[in-house]
Amino acid sequence: MDITHKVPSKVLTPTGGFLTGYTHTLNPYVGCSFACSFCYVRQMPVSLFRKAEWGTWVDVKQQAAEKLRKELRSAKKKGPVTIFMSSATDPYQPVEYREQVTRGLLEVLVEEPPAFLFVQTRSPLVVRDLDLLVRLRERVRVSITVETDLEEMRRQFTPAAPPLAARIKALAACRNAGLDVQAAVSPLLPCSGSFAQKLRGVVDRVVLDTYQMGDGSGGKRTQRLGIDKLYQQLGAEEWYTGEAFQRVHAQFLEAFADGTVFVSQEGFLPNRDECGGQAE
Ligand code: SF4
Fold it and tell me: Is residue 277 in a domain?
């Protein structure tokens, strides 16, 4: 892993509307060592212009907390600030154990609370920061990705990401701490018929997403990554279709309470109440 320390010019990035409902994205790192095979960031300039393979390098943002404090104060003068952390990296990837950039950013966000903060991760390390997250109360939602209930499938598609059991344990810990928590089945991978039942009781809210709905290009970016070939190798082609999604979606609708199963973008929107209705 090639880890470099860099001082960015800014840490808060205006979304320009590409992430509905959010004014800014916040990425503590550039690059991501989880290296998911389907990661759409592989097809974005940040990865394409880098000589090295996605997943083999991480840039650690230095002075991130100090910069965020200044940028946040200035952004809040213009209106409610809604932050998505993170859109192009995982804020709790392994380097965070040592560098604690994400934790530093959260300390600032507790001091200067935004209207809403969405934390998206695949890592149980998020539990380390429960002391800070609970101080943001209803202004934060923690969303932990659980793409499947089959560990073998997780190993095929995201071998460097944390095991599923650890993620489910983290979801339970966040929920027990009183946080607004969501399981993100994103992207939906081949799973068992009892996946929905297994998540029921761990979380009250779920979002399901597919490559076609969620990669920002109608599935074209994923197609360019050649992920369909992995499905062929696994003999799981039928899972690369919309029919698989419909079937699993129906199972989740049956297992969860009305209004708690979201599809694609709607599951990643800010909590409307916290943003005075201005976020959507
Ligand atoms: S955790 Fe997210 S950012 Fe990191 S490689 Fe996987 S999909 Fe990409």
Answer: no
- Is 279 contained in some domain? no
Per-residue confidence of the chain (280 residues) as pLDDT tens digits?
A: 999 999 999 999 999 766 889 999 999 999 999 999 999 999 889 999 998 999 999 999 999 999 999 999 999 999 999 999 999 999 999 999 999 999 999 999 999 999 999 999 999 999 999 999 999 999 999 999 999 999 999 999 999 999 999 999 999 999 999 999 999 999 999 999 999 999 999 999 999 999 989 888 888 888 899 999 999 999 999 999 889 999 999 999 999 999 999 999 999 999 876 665 444 3
For the record, the structure tokens of 234 come out as: 């696994």
Work out which ligand 1 atom sits closest to the CA atom of 35. 5
For residue 235, give its domain range.
2-265
Q: Report the distance separating Cα 21 and Cα 216, nearest Å.
A: 15
Amino acid at 82: T
Is residue 271 in some structural domain? no
**CATH code assigned at 227:** 3.80.30.30
**From atom 3 of ligand 1, which residue's Cα is the shortest distance away?**
89
Residue 275 lies in a domain: no
As for ligand 1, residues whose beta carbon falls within 6 Å of it are: 32, 34-36, 39, 41, 89-90, 122
How many residues in the chain? 280
Structural domain count, the chain: 1
Judged by phi (left if over 0) then psi (alpha if -120 to 50, else beta), residue 21 lies in left
